[in-house]
């Protein structure tokens, strides 16, 4: 069996191990339904073993990391926490002694959310590109000059190193691991059982244009933006949007830029292209995608897509549809 070990410590974020662990056990369930043996074994490790309390107050039972022999674990993932709980983990002598040999002999290793600080402090990220929680990107880059931080990705795969941005993105990364270890069909079945809207690929931004707009201030256009996201195939020009918002075109344009940091035209195109990227990664035809996101005919989609992402949409679909 493929042994997956999550390394936890007092005050860890409970969703960091529990979400991905549910994905791996879900893969075992899907395999069992087709008459195949379980593939994954999941273990929680800590410095001393025993019960370890998460930041939410829920405690989990763990094994001591010192009891695990290097080579017995195929995937090692360190989970994240807030700063006050993370710093003691970074300095923990048991973790500092046990993690390097465990990582060296694992098939892959990495982190969920801010767990990367623990591994980076040991020099295990040097020369690699990684993801971490958006709020930790700047401190991470400042602390570890030899590590390239991708502040936009949901998760990053760099050789044996897998890192995810934060909390729920660990689920996306675990699904990608299943697709890599087994196949995309199993990963899709797990995502469906967990009622996930979509298996998000790692290149997808931590923040969609919609979310970026919604987290700004008191989001005066939250309702309009939600409607836009659900109606990308509708006319989304300034006159139409201004009328829907009950404003003059000039007032709407000025207030929208102030609220979102983008002009309406740039915001709409970004939202449409991000939606197109997701649909293409699911294998849809260019014609279908262009119609769904309001960039019809397909030539219009192709021009805008290549201008933004630097790759033709057909090639993008062929490269990523199986992820």
From TrEMBL:
<dbReference type="GO" id="GO:0043565">
    <property type="term" value="F:sequence-specific DNA binding"/>
</dbReference>
<dbReference type="InterPro" id="IPR018060">
    <property type="entry name" value="HTH_AraC"/>
</dbReference>
<protein>
    <submittedName>
        <fullName>Transcriptional regulator GlxA family with amidase domain</fullName>
    </submittedName>
</protein>
<dbReference type="Pfam" id="PF01965">
    <property type="entry name" value="DJ-1_PfpI"/>
</dbReference>
<keyword id="KW-0805">Transcription regulation</keyword>
<dbReference type="InterPro" id="IPR029062">
    <property type="entry name" value="Class_I_gatase-like"/>
</dbReference>
<dbReference type="GO" id="GO:0003700">
    <property type="term" value="F:DNA-binding transcription factor activity"/>
</dbReference>
<dbReference type="InterPro" id="IPR009057">
    <property type="entry name" value="Homeodomain-like_sf"/>
</dbReference>
<dbReference type="InterPro" id="IPR052158">
    <property type="entry name" value="INH-QAR"/>
</dbReference>
<dbReference type="Pfam" id="PF12833">
    <property type="entry name" value="HTH_18"/>
</dbReference>
<dbReference type="InterPro" id="IPR018062">
    <property type="entry name" value="HTH_AraC-typ_CS"/>
</dbReference>
<keyword id="KW-0238">DNA-binding</keyword>
<keyword id="KW-0804">Transcription</keyword>
<feature type="domain" description="HTH araC/xylS-type">
    <location>
        <begin position="222"/>
        <end position="319"/>
    </location>
</feature>
<dbReference type="InterPro" id="IPR002818">
    <property type="entry name" value="DJ-1/PfpI"/>
</dbReference>
């Amino acid at each position: 069996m493929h042994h997956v070990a999550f390394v936890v410590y007092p005050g860890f974020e409970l969703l960091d191990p529990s979400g991905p662990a549910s994905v791996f056990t879900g893969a075992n369930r899907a395999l069992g339904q087709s008459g195949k043996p379980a593939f994954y074994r999941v273990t929680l490790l800590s410095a001393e073993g025993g019960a370890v309390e998460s930041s939410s107050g829920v405690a989990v039972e763990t094994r001591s990391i010192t009891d695990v022999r290097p080579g017995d674990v195929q995937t090692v993932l360190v989970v994240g926490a807030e700063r006050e709980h993370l710093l003691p983990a970074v300095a923990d002598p048991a973790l500092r002694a046990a993690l390097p040999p465990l990582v060296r002999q694992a098939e892959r290793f990495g982190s969920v959310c801010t767990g990367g600080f623990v591994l980076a402090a040991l020099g295990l990220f040097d020369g690699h590109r990684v993801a971490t929680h958006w709020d930790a990107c700047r401190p991470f880059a400042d602390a570890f000059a030899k590590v390239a931080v991708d502040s936009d990705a949901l998760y990053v795969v760099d050789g044996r190193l897998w890192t995810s941005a934060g909390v729920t993105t660990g689920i996306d990364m675990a699904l990608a691991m299943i697709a890599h270890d087994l196949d995309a069909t199993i990963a899709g079945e797990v995502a469906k059982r967990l009622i996930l809207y979509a298996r998000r690929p790692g290149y997808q931004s931590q923040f969609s244009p919609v979310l970026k707009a919604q987290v700004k201030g008191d989001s005066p256009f939250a309702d309009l933006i939600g409607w836009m996201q659900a109606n990308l195939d509708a006319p989304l020009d300034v006159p139409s949007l201004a009328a829907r918002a009950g404003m003059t075109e000039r007032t709407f344009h000025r207030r929208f830029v102030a609220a979102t940091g983008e002009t309406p035209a740039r915001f709409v195109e970004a939202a449409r292209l991000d939606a197109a990227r997701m649909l293409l990664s699911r294998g849809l035809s260019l014609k279908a995608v262009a119609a769904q996101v309001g960039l019809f005919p397909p030539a219009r989609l192709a021009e805008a897509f290549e201008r933004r992402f630097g790759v033709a949409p057909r090639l993008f679909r062929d490269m990523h549809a199986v992820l």
